[in-house]
Amino acid sequence: MIEVMEDVPARTVTLPDGRRLAYYEFGDPAGVPCLYTPGWPASGLLGGVYDDAAREAGVRWISIDKPGAGASDFDPRRSLLRYADDIAHLADELGLDRFASVGESGGGPHAAVLAHALPDRLTTTILLAAMGPAHEKWVREGMQPVNRRLIMMAQRAPWLLRAQTLLLSRMMNNPTKARRWERSLVEQASEADRRALARIDTGWLTAAAAAALRDGGRAAAQELAMIARPWGFALADITSPVEVWHGTADTNVPVAIARRVVAEIRTCTAVTYVEGEGHIVGLLVRHDVMASVVRASGGGRRGDMRPPSDRSRPTGHPRS
Hints:
9 strands
């Protein structure tokens, strides 16, 4: 089981407009650099669930606190394109000329904009159970009713969404209620996701959600509204290499969304649909993801070394 690491320090850089952007370092400090954007609502602490796989593969796993989450300052002018500017500045500060990018769930749109805006700096972009452009009707079709309601709320009644995230923030800041939330998360998960959650200390999820909601849920509401409106670029405009990993039993972001995203992005180099797995597919394929990061850097196949019992069951195909 992947257990919560104590006292993971947040590091920060100062952006040109004076805001702080925070990040966490996991894996191999001297390894192949990869920037990870977690889902919604989660801070960069969630990157800790990938620490073991990154360290084993030789990957420097740099996990981002999105604007307003964790130790990152709120951005009143937030957009996906501004996020790309923030990450370009972070990479400059860290001395990274080239790096990989991974976006999971609601972090998927953030990784997609990096693929669009920073094509010359990315070795590869990996989308894990990634959300599609929610302003498109085809993204909302087949989603769970609760997720459809959240998206519609973000589009039509952001004030109501803000009230919802405020309530969630208050819950996560109450230790007793936060533990209750953690238990209900597991109990209400699909069978596939319960299998995945059994591999980690779910305290990672609670800590990451609490940090993302530290400001009373203002940034979380802003983020969902941002994802639910036009992104400022089209998936078809992406010109850099992209890989897609998605579980066929994902009920949060149905696999039909991934298939459409693959059809829209003309530079998908690999597509893997993991049979029978759910929204937390990234945890199950984490060693394969690290292997892809290493290969894209030209570093060989070091990341392929892992115990046979931990191998996923992918069914996919390369795409040229």
